[in-house]
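step: validate -> pass
step: tokenize input -> pass
step: predict -> running
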Amino acid sequence: MRADAQRNRDRLVSVASEMVAEHGAEASLEEIARRAGVGSATLHRHFESRMALLDAVFAGRVAVLCDLGSSLLTAPDPADALVRWLTAVAQHAVRNRGLATSLLKGTGESCHALILTTGDALVTRAKEATAIRADVTTHELLKLTNGIALAAEEDETLANRLLTLAVTGLNP
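step: predict -> pass
step: emit ->
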């Protein structure tokens, strides 16, 4: 890729990241292009769809979550490892408006696949240790985490509290 094309792409991802933080994953593509100082055609030349742009925006953030999940696969308590990862997913979703919903909708195919693969590994390990119910799915846990992130809006402390309540139940 030519240097000027790479600069345009990088600027688009940077501006899109800012706009997603401000307006969520449904931020205007036209406004992203305008703020990046490029035309709409340039945006679409680099990113064939909103999904592709969101994939680029969220790729680094999702990589961090997946790296954490991979490192937790060797934690001594599989249930605790799963909860720690779900907590990190909720915190990221709260910090990065639209991340949770986009991932659950499959926005950004590679990000969606990475999150599911990481979650599946942690869920499988917890099931094998009989640390969680056998009928729980990764998709259900991500929906639960998404709901918590949406309910908490931008409050990470509340998101952590709600996830703890969901995981531990109402028992003292």
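step: describe -> DSSP finds nine helices and no strands in the chain.
step: cleanup -> pass
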